[in-house]
């Protein structure tokens, strides 16, 4: 690619150390911005990458000049498209626009709140499964249990299917897929044999998921779930003729995009509450006062502001989607620097959420920051759900689910991280605790 002679390029390390980037991407990004400033340019393999770390720059790429930036051939796209096909997450242009309109009604706040009882029943079910551990003081794998819970919730809410009925195989297949695509950038020295085993498991799991998803679609086409008003019903009622392959891609996309992220945000929330007992106490007081011992419903959400603030603050410190990438179609100018056509542009919610110029005590857990109206923050500073036209379609669903599940759990238990268990972030496809979360559910 020829670069104009008067092109003004941002500073950066030139060729970057791919090993350092892969082994610890959060550190790499933090050091790059600490050294070069909020606009950094570097080369990695054949790619030129711009890292933009100011809210107005994020807004320009994701919203104001979104037409110049595509998801096509970004790392996420390359990794996810073979599995998800051409669903909402991985499509582009008019095709994406049509799909977004078709899916939108099922994600409206009023519609999502109808699934409140699916969410609280799932949380109740989890508490029942934890009963023996509660009685004996044994640890549970909180991250695994929450992943199973959020998977069940999204599938039942959106497609009216009972994953438990399909059998454990579905959860296991999703695990195998997550474990393979989760490591799409193998760390330096990763065991090749291990990668091979995961790849083989992934291929088997992807084929299994394909079959199950097609079975869910066929059952509905054959008249099952009559009277349901969910996403699948909306897709099938669409005046456009939606093919089985398109339905398959959409169902799998929503199932995959709609569970791992919410599970991680709940996992980080419970971890942070264990580290901040005073906040945990205030939270339980709020829940007790609002519910008086009964289960929450969506109608209680306005009475649970602290639950929401705690979740929002956990999403700030540990945004499950820690990096968003786009590819520049044509030239652009950002912050006075030229973006060359074809370059990759990275925006990191993780960095923006801890940017010292915008947040007081950026690394501290202070849920009360979110008591103020979001209008007081610069647009695109806090963006766990992205921004612009491709903002997460499931954001209300995620917040309603996380709030109801959190309120249901803290009514009865507090999670005590096993002493000595190391919790540190690992930036794979989602930002997760490297070793998971092992904690003892203590009765309150
Ligand atoms: C805490 C939970 C969640 C987080 C942090 C999250 C985050 C995000 C982010 C950052 C994006 C934008 C990616 C980009 O611009 O490249 C996105 C897109 C998307 N999310 Fe979520 N998400 C969550 C929950 C959900 C749920 C519950 C669903 C569905 C039930 C969902 C479905 C989707 C879909 C389909 C897209 C693509 C939208 C489009 O391109 O039009 N997400 N999500």
Describe it.
- A hairpin with a 3-residue loop joins strand 11 and strand 12 (431-433).
- The chain has a domain at 82-323 and 390-443: Cytochrome P450 (Cytochrome p450, Orthogonal Bundle).
- The protein has helices at 18-23, 25-36, 55-64, 75-84, 93-103, 109-112, 116-136, 142-159, 163-166, 168-181, 192-221, 231-236, 244-257, 260-275, 277-291, 305-317, 349-352, 395-412; strands spanning 14-15, 39-44, 47-52, 69-70, 140-141, 324-328, 332-334, 337-339, 344-347, 413-417, 425-427, 431-433, 438-443.
- It is α+β, with helices and mostly antiparallel strands and 444 residues long.
- The protein is globular and about 70 Å long.
- Strands 1-2-3-9-6-4 form a six-stranded mixed β-sheet, sandwiched between helices.
- It contains 18 helices and 13 strands.
- The structure holds protoporphyrin IX containing FE.
- The site of protoporphyrin IX containing FE has 23 residues, from helix 13, helix 14 and helix 18.
Give the strand order, joined by hyphens, for the main sheet. 1-2-3-9-6-4
Distance between the termini: 63 Å
Helix percent reads 40-55%
CATH topology of the domain at 82-323 and 390-443: Cytochrome p450
Q: Could you give a short account of the major beta sheet?
A: 6 strands, mixed
Summed up:
The protein has 444 residues and is of the alpha+beta class.
Task: Note the main attributes of this structure.
3-stranded antiparallel beta sheet; 444 residues; Cytochrome p450; binds protoporphyrin IX containing FE; 11% strand; 6-stranded mixed beta sheet; alpha+beta
